[in-house]
Amino acid sequence: MNKDIEETRRYLESALSEARLTEELFDASQISKHNIPMTDTISRPELDAKLETIGAKMDGRLARIEDRFTGLERRFDKLETMLDKQKYTAWAAAGATIVAVSGIVFAAYAMGFGAFDSGRETAKLAADAQHQTSAALTEIRQIVESLKVPPR
Fold this sequence. Notes:
The protein is mainly α. It has helices spanning 2-25, 44-147. The model has no long low-confidence stretch (mean pLDDT 79).
């Protein structure tokens, strides 16, 4: 920073000496009211003080900008942490969905086999019931025949 101040000081000194030269070259009658050269010169301590003030202001502004970037960096870190948590939550939800769908498919598969087996069992039970019914009907007819009174 001191190097920049020294370069600025040299530049201002050269500009000041050039201004004095141009002031000597021009006639006062040729200078318009908008181009009046500065007649009061600034002393070296005043210039140093002004440059130091400007430097301090710039340092303050730079510090505020750095603080803002630091704040943004912290916000981005928090956002990244939140996104990581959401990523794990999404993977957990996907896993739970896969387990649930697998369970539903397994249940439907089991119900299909149960219905198929039930159908086979029902057909067998119906055939047994028909056989028992026809046997009972035959027995009832025999009993009815035996209870009939013979004609006289």
